[in-house]
Amino acid sequence: MDDKNKRGQSGYNQYARDSGGRRPEKPKSFPITTYIPVIFGLVLLLVFLLPMIKPSGGTPKASPTPSVSPSPTEELTPPPNPLEELLNDQFLLLVNASNKLPDDYKPEQLVVIAQQEGNAVKTKPDDWRMSSTAYLALNEMVKAAAEAGYDKLQIRDAYRTRNKQAELYEQNPNTAAPPGTSDFETGLAVQIGLTEGALDKDSDEFKWLLDNAHKYGYILRFPQGKKQATGRDFSAAIWRYVGQRNATEMYSRSYCFEEYIRAIKDAIDLGDTALPPAPTPSATPETSATPETSATPETSATPETSATPDTSVTPPTSATPDTSASPPPQQQA
Predict the structure, then answer these.
(1) Using CA atoms, how far apart are residues 128 and 157, in angstroms rounded to an integer?
(2) CA distances in angstroms from 251 to 225, 246, 279, 282, listed in the order given
(3) Per-residue pLDDT tens for 213-261?
(4) This prediction's pTM
(5) Alpha-carbon gap, residue 226 to 209, rounded angstroms
(6) Which CATH number fits the domain 82-269, given the four candidates 3.30.1380.10, 3.40.630.30, 3.40.50.2300, 2.40.160.30?
(7) Pair 163, 201: CB distance under 8 Å
(8) Which single residue of 3, 115, 238, 269 could bond 221 by disulfide (Cβ 3.0 to 4.6 Å)?
(9) Taking the domains of the chain in order of start, what are their residue ranges?
(10) Helical packing angle, 257-269 and 244-253, nearest 10°
(11) Is there a contact between 331 and 237 (Cβ–Cβ < 8 Å)?
């Protein structure tokens, strides 16, 4: 037996003598399931402790802050003002001495009034043309007037070319507008007369138009008392198509065309998106309560003045021409 085995055997014999001759027991072993809770606990501990561990530099690493992209430019731009869009309405084209039509202006599709199917508009002469949209509204208005008992309306003038307007202005510079400044060049204006004469402010037809034309998109272009705004004298004959909405707004506010455009621009400057409500018409107070004047003392007791020379021989003035019955001149705007 070699020395190594001898030493091993000698050690074992010594251990046997010390332990009373019993064979030493093997160390106990634990099943793997015994370690699972321990491992699970260590994992949880690491999970909670790792966020608290500082990096080697000593400064905690900040989490990246999400970048905020700037809002799109469109969201910062205010929405378009409806009043500004209204000013671009093709039928709300203001034409006057301060607002000249472009040299290349072309009106909406023109139609010959007398040639339209279902036409009820009387024309003189029969070749007058106008915008197709304005004609359709005019035809409806004339039909409604006839149903109300006013069937004598007649168109005396309508669309004019730039050359025609220049020709009229050369002939009548006091009544015709300079070329480029007349509503008739838009194809949206008409001059209305009667089959038996001129349309004047005292005619029943004019009064009907004044109360009803806005329902069909028409306005009186040069109303009474508006010369300071329009620059033109009153004319009962010239009517202009602006569309039902605009005509109704002007009618409810008693605006002429120029005043309406000015009101829209003022509202835009103030940042408003709509015109203020139209004023409610106030009831006109009755005048029946006015004290009667019949109680005024009679003057029959005044001393007679028969001694005064009789002036009855004064020459009569009936020879002076009476102009009250003459029809008002029609403006050739």
Answers:
(1) 7
(2) 15, 9, 11, 15
(3) 999 999 999 999 999 999 999 999 999 999 999 999 999 999 999 999 9
(4) 0.65
(5) 18
(6) 3.30.1380.10
(7) no
(8) 238
(9) 82-269
(10) 90
(11) yes
